Amino acid sequence: MLILQRTLQKEVSLWGSGLHTGKECMITFKPAPVNYGYRFVRTDIDDSPEIPALIENVVDVLRGTTIGLNGVKVHTTEHVLGALYGLQIDNCRIEISGPEPPVMDGSSHPFAAALIEAGFKEQDEPKNYLVIDETIEYHDANNSVDIVALPLDSFRITVMVDYKNPALGSQHSGLFDLDKEFVKEFSSSRTFCFLSEVEALANQGIIKGGDVDNAIVIIDKTMCEQELSDLGKKLGIESKNLVLGDNGILNNRELRFKNEPARHKLLDLLGDIALLGMPLKAQVLAARPGHASNVEFVKQLKKYVDRNKLARQFQHEKKAGVIFDINAIQQILPHRYPFLLIDKIIEFKLDEKIVSIKNVTINEPFFQGHFPGNPIMPGVLILEAMAQTGGIMMLNGNDNIKESVVLFMGIDKARFRKPVLPGDTLVIEAILTNKRRNICQFDAKAYVRGELVCEASLMATVAPKSK
């Protein structure tokens, strides 16, 4: 069934102060055209600069996800984006009169409620889902973080947290249906932190808008009345008495859900996944996630999107074990007979690695002269096949591929180990070692029946075709 993009029926506004900056601002959600995505607009700055909510615009992940462009930033975007993503809104202009959305009650619910009040409008373009067909993983062994996306023709997400604190323990939560569960079960889960963190952050002046009413503070240390009073002054809430709760939470605040911290981590992850710029179909499993790991995971998803950009554009027929067949390659590379020297691409990891196949037959024109009676593939043509392989890796994701060409800049450490003969199948592996703007270096190796026959380090650049 074709599912159409969604925006708002009308605009809606909220007012409040930011959690970290403490600055008051108004946030206004407005309808937006198809394929607009989410864009924050700083109306407090001359010319109202826009910042698309995309992973490449993330500039900081300290205590929240901050996006920025050309020196202009918006802090703590995750609760706003979590509400938009959870309600499956695809296009929205988010005007904000300050550097940070209002924290409200520390959850996404006030934003979600306002968006629901504004109403939804279906648009005349289908949603552009990211549907994965392989496992995508992010692991951080130092912080015991694991996030995995598994192929699934719908969206599910499960989160586990374990802070080894009596008030929290080990918690997990799962969302299996955005339509039925997001608003009721997840949008109202509030941000949380530990008392020791609050003290440290208050000393640094990082949570100027922090309050016991917009965050759950979990007690992980003892403090006397004077210390609690001093903390209240630093937070600007000396009018409120702070007490160590006997339920493990500052001021004995009640949780909205028994596993509210785990649900909020899931909400944060939703908000960070929104930075992908398209809805995701996958089963996401996350252990001990945080904004830094969420962003790295979304970067892995973005690499998958970019790696398959050419495949979606040129490889119209899906074939087992083939990323690009010869028809797709001919649309990507400008080379033609007798100088197109690769037959298919069988493996591709964007900005990392690519593997091609070249079937060497006696019909190759160069065998007529190299050498009569003793046909051997010229080493320079093996290098050319390596270069064409690396060229596809460099061109992938290039918006002007038809007007671009990959040019050699250098060859180093070329070694020819064994002759390549008619009937051989060359397996060429190119691994990217350095990338600066439009200049790339990659190490390439060619194998026949698992034996190394040639290797070299190549440098190339992407340049516009001459008119």
Automatic annotation (TrEMBL):
<keyword id="KW-0963">Cytoplasm</keyword>
<dbReference type="GO" id="GO:0019171">
    <property type="term" value="F:(3R)-hydroxyacyl-[acyl-carrier-protein] dehydratase activity"/>
</dbReference>
<protein>
    <recommendedName>
        <fullName>Multifunctional fusion protein</fullName>
        <ecNumber>4.2.1.59</ecNumber>
        <ecNumber>3.5.1.108</ecNumber>
    </recommendedName>
</protein>
<keyword id="KW-0441">Lipid A biosynthesis</keyword>
<comment type="similarity">
    <text>Belongs to the thioester dehydratase family. FabZ subfamily.</text>
</comment>
<comment type="similarity">
    <text>Belongs to the LpxC family.</text>
</comment>
<feature type="active site">
    <location>
        <position position="370"/>
    </location>
</feature>
<feature type="binding site">
    <location>
        <position position="268"/>
    </location>
    <ligand>
        <name>Zn(2+)</name>
    </ligand>
</feature>
<dbReference type="GO" id="GO:0046872">
    <property type="term" value="F:metal ion binding"/>
</dbReference>
<dbReference type="InterPro" id="IPR020568">
    <property type="entry name" value="Ribosomal_Su5_D2-typ_SF"/>
</dbReference>
<feature type="binding site">
    <location>
        <position position="264"/>
    </location>
    <ligand>
        <name>Zn(2+)</name>
    </ligand>
</feature>
<dbReference type="InterPro" id="IPR011334">
    <property type="entry name" value="UDP-acyl_GlcNac_deAcase_C"/>
</dbReference>
<keyword id="KW-0378">Hydrolase</keyword>
<feature type="binding site">
    <location>
        <position position="79"/>
    </location>
    <ligand>
        <name>Zn(2+)</name>
    </ligand>
</feature>
<dbReference type="GO" id="GO:0016020">
    <property type="term" value="C:membrane"/>
</dbReference>
<dbReference type="InterPro" id="IPR010084">
    <property type="entry name" value="FabZ"/>
</dbReference>
<keyword id="KW-0444">Lipid biosynthesis</keyword>
<comment type="function">
    <text>Involved in unsaturated fatty acids biosynthesis. Catalyzes the dehydration of short chain beta-hydroxyacyl-ACPs and long chain saturated and unsaturated beta-hydroxyacyl-ACPs.</text>
</comment>
<dbReference type="Pfam" id="PF03331">
    <property type="entry name" value="LpxC"/>
</dbReference>
<dbReference type="InterPro" id="IPR015870">
    <property type="entry name" value="UDP-acyl_N-AcGlcN_deAcase_N"/>
</dbReference>
<comment type="pathway">
    <text>Glycolipid biosynthesis; lipid IV(A) biosynthesis; lipid IV(A) from (3R)-3-hydroxytetradecanoyl-[acyl-carrier-protein] and UDP-N-acetyl-alpha-D-glucosamine: step 2/6.</text>
</comment>
<comment type="function">
    <text>Catalyzes the hydrolysis of UDP-3-O-myristoyl-N-acetylglucosamine to form UDP-3-O-myristoylglucosamine and acetate, the committed step in lipid A biosynthesis.</text>
</comment>
<dbReference type="GO" id="GO:0006633">
    <property type="term" value="P:fatty acid biosynthetic process"/>
</dbReference>
<keyword id="KW-0479">Metal-binding</keyword>
<keyword id="KW-0443">Lipid metabolism</keyword>
<dbReference type="GO" id="GO:0103117">
    <property type="term" value="F:UDP-3-O-acyl-N-acetylglucosamine deacetylase activity"/>
</dbReference>
<keyword id="KW-0456">Lyase</keyword>
<dbReference type="InterPro" id="IPR004463">
    <property type="entry name" value="UDP-acyl_GlcNac_deAcase"/>
</dbReference>
<feature type="active site" description="Proton donor">
    <location>
        <position position="291"/>
    </location>
</feature>
<keyword id="KW-0862">Zinc</keyword>
<dbReference type="InterPro" id="IPR029069">
    <property type="entry name" value="HotDog_dom_sf"/>
</dbReference>
<dbReference type="Pfam" id="PF07977">
    <property type="entry name" value="FabA"/>
</dbReference>
<dbReference type="InterPro" id="IPR013114">
    <property type="entry name" value="FabA_FabZ"/>
</dbReference>
<dbReference type="GO" id="GO:0005737">
    <property type="term" value="C:cytoplasm"/>
</dbReference>
<dbReference type="GO" id="GO:0009245">
    <property type="term" value="P:lipid A biosynthetic process"/>
</dbReference>
